[in-house]
Amino acid sequence: MAAGFPGVRLGLATVRWLQTQSSSPLAVIGGRFPVMTGILSGCASRKQIRHVHVTGGRSSPATGTVPGRLPFATVSQQDLEFFNKLLHSRTITDPDLLESSNRDWLNSVKGSSEVLLRPESTEEVSQILRYCNERRLAVNPQGGNTGLVGGSVPVFDEIILSTALMNRVLSFDRVSGILTCQAGCVLEKLSDYLEERDFIMPLDLGAKGSCHIGGNVATNAGGLRLLRYGSLHGTVLGLEVVLADGQVLNCLAGLRKDNTGYDLKQLFIGSEGTLGVITAVSILCPHKPNAVNVAFLGCSSFQQLLETFQCCRGMLGEILSAFEFLDSSCMKLLETHLKLVNPITESPFYILIETAGSNATHDEEKLHSFLETVMSSSLVDDGTVATEQAKIKALWAMRERITEALTHDGYTYKYDISLPVEKIYQLVTDMREHLGDRAKNVVGYGHVGDGNLHLNITSPAKDPALLAAIEPYVYEWTARFQGSISAEHGLGLKKKNYIHFSKPPEAVALMGNIKSMLDPRGILNPYKTLPDCLR
Ligand SMILES: O=C(O)CC[C@@H](O)C(=O)O
Ligand SMILES: [Zn+2]
Predict the structure, then answer these.
(1) Protein residue closest via CA to atom 2 of ligand 1
(2) What are the φ and ψ backbone dihedral angles of 467, each rounded to 5 degrees?
């Protein structure tokens, strides 16, 4: 904990050190995606339900054209008997209980599965898949169902295979920091488990209270710490995966280095459940930093924000753990829909910087000197810093709760774009100009440190004409600058047909071959990730 900087005047503005204030302007200690709880327990409001698109059998501009159901078998009485015998009461067929598993948490897509299976062990998953593969029953693997691209819910009547009951930590090695756990462990629970042991998870997401580690790995979730600890392609050391035919592929070895042949686990990271069902994960966890500081700063232009980023990288170096941004439109949504209070003077852009290190005095000195530099050179106009846990959380809420605020603004079209960092905000301004008053709000926020923009566009209701104005414009724009149309959310159902904007035909064809080899009957998460032309 910081000893407490005095309120220091830096240039023209004053940095308000939150830990010294008795009456903080922040009345905003917020949960993460609290709206999800309601939706997951089937409590979505009418207003939200109105936007739900029943996916299967229809054509929807929001999800791309969904061609007809593939010729999978349908679940018979005999199939149910098999599942009941294997799982007993963990075979769910009650439509009310299936409701929240059929619907994504954004209420944007909805399937019509009639069976939800809740295995507890890898062996049970193996038996389920062996059976489904033989019968050619389609399966939709599901973790916490917090995905944003319609990848985690069925399109038609696929059997939902939930990892929710596979939630045990299998081992943790305090020397190496390697955690091995079942796929259904909730990310926040793992974080709590590790914190008690002075470690942390290498990834952190706004959806941490609901998302499962298996789902995180299956979508290669990036999140808020990627800048510091890298992607799951680096931190995941091993996986246990059940293949479509029920074979268990045990590549769980928790080794930092292992060059024995092809690194097969990488295939499953980010494959969105289309190549196998991840049942266990070995992941390398960093030590818990002794000192964490968060600064929330205001900038008057995106150019200044970028210069602040450059300066920050140079001056904070190894202690920098996050560099996030939001624009003033996001701030308005936070204020309007969630009643959060802007902790600093109104600005066109806001930056959230986190430092995490081992020596509080050293980190504070570095942060202090960085803040002095950016404020005296007028790169930053105003700012506030927190070192206390509750206030850190309050500042993070300004960034983490934007997704939630957007759900209250109407129907949201979401884009998750990677671009050269100096280009990321130009897409927002060009889109605003391009759409004019056809959109309700066009907002930009995201992970500056990773060159990852979250462009979100709202309208009072689902609006095909607006969508036609956004797509393919947004993808063409991204391709022009060699960007990625899915930085960290995956392709799922909504983006799969746009893959060619970011990958050459040879790469897409090879993906199709890999899918055919690993899942020749196509039962695993059909209709997702790969374009319809490969069906
Ligand atoms: O809702 C979104 O578009 C982004 C969600 C998440 O990736 C985030 O960084 O907050
Ligand atoms: Zn993100």
Answers:
(1) 403
(2) -60, -40
| Ligand in closest contact with the CA of 352 | 1
3-state SS string over 197-255?
Answer: CCECCCCCCCCCCCCEHHHHHHHCCCCCCHHHHCCHHHHEEEEEEECCCCCEEEECCCC
Instruction: Quote the CA–CA distance of 314 and 119 in Å, as a whole number.
Output: 49
What is the rounded CA–CA span in Å between residue 496 and residue 138? 18
Q: What are phi and psi of 168, to 5 degrees?
A: -105, 140
> Which pLDDT belongs to residue 535?
84
How many Å apart are CA 239 and CA 252, to the nearest integer? 5
Contacts of 77 (CB under 8 A, 6+ apart): none
Using one digit for the tens of pLDDT, what is the confidence trace for 255-284? 999 999 999 999 999 999 999 999 999 999
Where b means 16+ CB within 10 Å and e means fewer, 402-414 reads bbbbbbebbbbbb
| pLDDT of res. 8 | 30
User: Residue 66: what pLDDT?
Assistant: 67
Distance 454 CA to ligand 1 centre (A): 6
CB of 214 within 6 A of ligand 1: the answer is no
Burial (CB < 10 A; 0-12, 13-18, 19+), residue 528, is buried
**Six token digits for residue 234:** 């680096």
Distance (Å, rounded) from C-alpha 155 to C-alpha 328?
A: 36
Distances (CA, A) of 247 to 128, 130, 133, 183, 213: 11, 8, 11, 17, 21
The span from the CA of 377 to the CA of 370, in Å, is 11
Estimate to the nearest angstrom the gap between the alpha carbon of 64 and the chain centroid.
21
SS3 312: helix
Whether 147 lines ligand 1, by a CB cut-off of 6 Å, is no
Q: Confirm or reject: Cβ of 490 under 6 Å from ligand 1.
A: no
CB burial string 325-346: b at 16+ within 10 A, e below: bbbebbbbbbeeebebebbbee
Residues of the chain short of pLDDT 50, as ranges, are 1-52, 57-64
Token pair of 271, please?
A: 């494959």
Q: Each residue of 182-206: pLDDT tens digit?
A: 999 999 999 999 999 999 999 999 9
Q: Which burial class, exposed, middle or buried, applies to 274 when counting CB atoms under 10 A from its CB (0-12, 13-18, 19+)?
A: buried
Q: Which residues make Cβ contacts (< 8 Å) with residue 300, sequence separation at least 6?
A: 347, 348, 349, 381
Choosing from 205, 226, 404, 417 the residue with most ligand 1 atoms within 8 A of its CB, the one to mutate for a pocket test is 205
How many CB atoms within 10 Å of residue 362?
Answer: 12
Q: What was the pLDDT predicted at 33? A: 30
Nearest CA to ligand 1 atom 7: 223
